[in-house]
Write a structure and sequence with these properties.
single chain, 348 residues, Rossmann fold, Dehydroquinate synthase-like, alpha domain, 2 domains, 7 strands, binds zinc ion
Length: 348
């Protein structure tokens, strides 16, 4: 059954949470479908207050006994929240693969200048339809790779922290050994993705299955690990610095994280804080982005927001103090000098 056939079977017992563009298509397929359109200007508005507002709208929509989330990351988060609060079964059907949100069981809630991960919502089904995903611009689908590629810098971040704390990575503490193994398993994923770069230029059954497979593994590894450390490190904190300190509100999460990966890789390389077995360095990361056709969008963003990007790089260390990150092991003066040098040497 394709997505159109599936939607045509829905009656008022199914609440479809969606955004503006899929809503139009859904209405064409099933004019009687029960729709809740999440009309946010950007994912940054996902505060508890706004999630509760969406919950109120859902409840006012009449009774429903299942939820279908058809959209991107914001829609997925809103649907998870409503599912959790109403104890209703959730089905995810992404119309774009722009983040790993439909695969994650926790809900990312904006809390002033940071993000809290709360609650646990397991979807009953995650459905994919190539024709539906193809309706979204290709670059938006590719941006979902940010939450896979971030494993490169996040795993380095974890290694550096452990090395700094323990003085060695050769130790036999059970919890450490388990986590190290999981980090090693995680870092295979971006390496495999890099080998598939020629397949990731467009939406095909192959590229969809590569991305879904990567998301499922990444999310599973984080679940077993106990938190998002294998895929969320300083590169994500840089994305949050751009959002919360730099005031960049309307740019997809993926663009900010990819820029974060590049600069954090440069810092990690500069500090020689890298695993000698690491295969992806900043040059091959840039080459990968160029090959799949994403590099230009990042360069345009950085050129148009150069002052904010540079200021946020300096601000990052201070902003990220609340998190467990390798940046906390760099002295303030050294950090400033490193950023100065990196900005001089590298232009995105
Ligand atoms: Zn992310």
């Amino acid at each position: 059954m394709n997505w159109k056939e599936l939607i045509s079977t829905f009656d008022s017992s199914t609440l479809i949470i969606t955004s503006l563009s899929p809503a139009h298509l859904i209405k064409c397929e099933n004019p009687k479908a029960k729709l809740q359109i999440v009309d946010f200007a950007g994912p940054k508005i996902l505060s508890l207050e706004n999630l509760n507002r969406q919950l109120k709208i859902a409840k006012a929509n009449g009774d429903f006994n299942e939820i279908f989330a058809i959209g991107g990351g914001t829609v997925s988060e809103v649907a998870k929240f409503i599912s959790h609060e109403t104890l209703t079964e959730l089905n995810q059907m992404p119309s774009v693969l722009s983040t790993d949100s439909p695969f994650c069981t926790s809900i990312a809630i904006r809390n002033f200048d940071h993000i809290d991960y709360r609650f646990l919502v397991e979807p009953k089904r995650i459905c994919f339809d190539e024709d539906l995903l193809r309706l979204a611009p290709m670059y938006l689908n590719q941006l979902g790779l940010c939450d896979i590629l971030s494993i490169i810098t996040a795993s380095n971040d974890w290694y550096i922290r452990e090395l700094k704390r323990r003085g060695t990575l050769k130790c036999y503490d059970t919890d450490f050994v388990k986590k190290k193994k999981l980090i090693e398993l995680a870092r295979i994923i971006p390496e495999e993705i890099r080998l598939e770069m020629s397949s990731l230029r467009e939406i095909t059954p192959k590229s969809i299955s590569i991305m879904i497979n990567a998301f499922l593994r990444e999310v599973y590894i984080c679940d077993v690990f106990g938190n998002a450390s294998p895929e969320e490190g300083a590169e994500h904190y840089f994305a949050y610095t751009l959002e919360f300190i730099g005031g960049i509100r309307e740019v997809p999460h993926g663009i900010l994280v990819l820029i974060g990966i590049y600069y954090i890789l440069r810092i990690q390389e500069f500090m020689e804080y890298v695993d000698p077995e690491r295969m992806i360095d900043s040059d091959s990361f840039i080459f990968f982005l160029r090959m799949i056709g994403l590099l230009g969008r990042l360069q345009i963003f950085v050129r148009e927001n150069r002052e904010i990007v540079e200021n946020c790089l300096y601000e990052l260390k201070n902003y990220a103090k609340r998190y467990d990150t390798f940046l906390n092991f760099i002295k303030e003066d050294s950090y400033k000098a490193i950023i100065k040098q990196i900005l001089k040497d590298s232009e995105l």
